[in-house]
Amino acid sequence: MDPTNKAKGPSPHYSLYQREVFRRGGKSGHLPSFSVHPEELQESTKKKLNDRGYFYANSNAGLGWTDRANREAFYKWRIVPRACVDTNTRDLTTTLFGHKIPAPICFAPIGINKLYSPNGELVPATIAGELGLPYCLSTASSQPIEAVAAANDKGPRFFQLYMGHDDDVTLSLLNRAWKSGFDVLMLTTDTWQLGWRPTDINIANYVFYYGGTVGNEVGASDPVFMQKYGKEFKTDSGKWIDSSVWHGKAHTWEKIQWLIQQWNRISGGRPFVLKGIQNADDALKAHEVGCTGIVVTNHAGRQVDGAVASLEVLPDIVKAVGDKMTILFDSGIRTGSDVFKAISLGAHAVMVGRLYVWGMSHEAEAGCRHVIKSLLADLDITMTVAGYRSISEDVFRNKDALRFNPYGIPPGPGEHAKL
């Protein structure tokens, strides 16, 4: 980790962050205040948040089997290291929807960030801007669209839409997002209503109903919503979330075509992405109706219990549309090796959610920055020591870098692997 041995490729020398941490510890005894080991990080978050915050970030549908399946799927794909490769020239960069980004990592849309830090979405938006990574804002944000845009002055910025059944409100959100520099629209298809999450049920964990505006900020700052529903909203804080976000009334492909047309009109044809794809036929249909990209995700196991793992279905979806659409992968990313595997299986980039929430829960911007810089360093080091120079080279992207092993499951905390 000689700092004078600068990487020759276009990527930042992310691996030097490990050296920076070691040097601070060795010279001044300054150690990180929390562990970035994913299991330890999740556990320590319990001490930083109240029950509402912790369980909202970590609750899963049903028994949590889908969340477990996501991690098992990563365990079953094993990296095949290569020897004597000059990885001093390496390239983690990629182009996503016209944006050149330094690494294939995006900030996933997560709502109600004020549960994790007082400044809410301004925290990850700021860190994403610093690092040049795409930030995706949730419709369930606890900050107005315009405030998040101001915090993320460098972009790229994507807007994730929960589409209600009032078209006037939908169009208002689209126009606000576009005017604020969010130039990719991402519609979530798997959360017309919340999944059954017992650990949230246990404590009636639905902050939108507890009065105030937390979680309702996008609606409370929307002129069209407030003009039409403001009187009701003043007496029922759940009006925004119940009518415009998780309304329980599914949309169909026909409505998605309408939304694509409206976004094309507003944005001049900027990308439209469908989030929640777990089936190759649905991916083909998304392409047929005009989507630019898809997000292969099961909402991190929060919606359907006992469902397929996202990584499990990724190869089939890549085979169906990988040469036609941009494919983002989400659900279960914890380490640089996870990013490596998802990209090697055909995703163009991954979305990271719970990791950055855990980080900001500890130390706001500093915690979020530490977790994401650690993930970038982990990916950079994994590429280097495994002998792969670029995420675009054929030997990396054609599954040659991986081998599938169907046996065993990943160990739980404090356990040994079970065979």
UniProtKB/TrEMBL annotation:
The keyword Acyltransferase does not apply. Keywords: Flavoprotein, FMN, Oxidoreductase. Residues 30-404 form the FMN hydroxy acid dehydrogenase domain. The active site is at 299 (proton acceptor). Its cofactor is FMN. GO terms for molecular function: FMN binding; oxidoreductase activity. Gene3D superfamilies: Aldolase class I. Glyoxylate binds at residues 56, 162, 197, 299, 302. This is FMN hydroxy acid dehydrogenase domain-containing protein. It comes from Phlebiopsis gigantea (strain 11061_1 CR5-6) (White-rot fungus).
